[in-house]
Amino acid sequence: MKRPFRIAVTGAAGSISNSLLFRIASGDMFGKDQPVILQLIERAEAMQALRGVAMELEDCAFPLLHGVRLHDNAEDGFRNVSHALLVGAKPRGKGMERKDLLAENAEIFSRQGKALNDFANPDVKVLVVGNPANTNAMIASRNAPDLSPAQFTAMSRLDHNRAKGILGNHIGVNAGDLTHVAVWGNHSPTQYPDVRNAKAFGEPVMPSLDQKWVEETFIPRVQKRGGEIIEARGLSSAASAAQGAIDHMRDWELGSRDGDFVSMCVFSDGSYGIAKGIVYSFPVRCRYGRYEIVQGLPIDDEARKRMKATEDELLEEKAAIEHLLPKETEAASQE
Ligand code: NAI
Question: Across-strand partners of 261?
Fold first, then answer.
């Protein structure tokens, strides 16, 4: 039998985790032969609710679940983990300014970055889901000087999956038969969902797509899908966000599909002229537990404009909290 993976999840009593934990424990993330130990982290106030989640996990009698530990602090929760899913974050309160939201999360993710640095496995893979996810991932990495920035990623896979779902539905093709869809930039309404290279059954879809539909319906719909779901459900995306996290981690660990790429927010290495030192969603391929940014995709003026707008937003977010961070190292600005 394989050795269990120790997986930390923060925000473990929240809505996304209510889908995510059960999917991890059933083998959807790392395969039906990979045992797991869950190290669940919550705020002290939510520990009672977390105990309820742990009881439900026990009641599922998952054969792959080799242990559940509950923690009210990141330092204990991240001890010896090989994978960390940072789902909990400070939500935007009523009347809260964006810069205050960024600052409050900077505090949370600075502490979590330090704890990952000091207590997690040296090769830990980190996925940040909690918003503002890209900048939170950057903050965590900046506080983890002994870990490579390449170990810190944020989630744009939900946006990627949304783009495939909406495009597939529009052209009457199953999402699984679509490839080469990409999401660039920030996990926010400035993101650029890009179907210029998309293929259905291996054939380019652009020639048969109405450009007006792409620009005026498809792109804004994907960008604002989170808000559309809140309006319909009265709650933000939870099951689909959990699916995005499952897909992201599975592909990173086990490899992405041959002949295709996926979207992940990773530290920019300057590819496509995007500034180094920010966590930006790129098309990537995953192999042997690592990812690489797909190079050489054609970028026209319209795409360049959209990629720049979302890059500028990330640079602004970074500037707003830069004074709260340790000095940028050469590695952080290069990898
Ligand atoms: P939720 O409010 O239901 O749950 C969040 C949980 O995090 C709460 O139980 C809270 O107690 C906990 N938490 C807060 N601060 C914490 C800390 N410092 N340590 C440990 N736990 C902490 O929220 P939900 O719906 O589960 O969403 C979680 C986050 O994911 C939000 O920030 C949301 O905006 C974000 N999100 C990101 C998406 C993406 O695609 N990147 C998609 C959907 C949501």
Answer: none
Sign of the C-alpha dihedral computed for residues 34, 37, 43 and 48 taken in this order: positive
Torsion sign across C-alpha atoms 324, 327, 333, 334: negative
Element (H, E) at 321: helix 301-321
- Mean pLDDT of all residues belonging to the chain: 96
Strand order in the sheet with 83-86: 65-71, 36-41, 5-10, 83-86, 125-128, 152-154, 262-267, 279-287, 290-293
Residue of 48, 101, 160, 236 with the most ligand 1 atoms within 8 Å of its CB, for mutation: 236
- The reply to whether ligand 1 has any atom less than 6 angstroms from the CB of 281 is no
Which structure tokens are listed for 50?
A: 């977390």
CB within 8 Å of 198: residues ≥ 6 apart: 167, 178, 179, 180, 181, 204, 205, 206
pLDDT for 78-93, tens place per residue? 999 999 999 999 988 7
The low-confidence residues of the chain, meaning pLDDT below 70, are: 329-335
Catalytic positions are 187
pTM: 0.97
Q: Which atom of ligand 1 is nearest to the CA of 128?
A: 41
Are residues 128 and 154 in contact, defined by beta-carbon separation less than 8 angstroms?
A: yes
Handedness of CA 10, 11, 17, 22 (dihedral sign): positive
What span, in angstroms and rounded, lies between the C-alpha atoms of 49 and 14?
A: 9
* Residue 225, marked binder: no
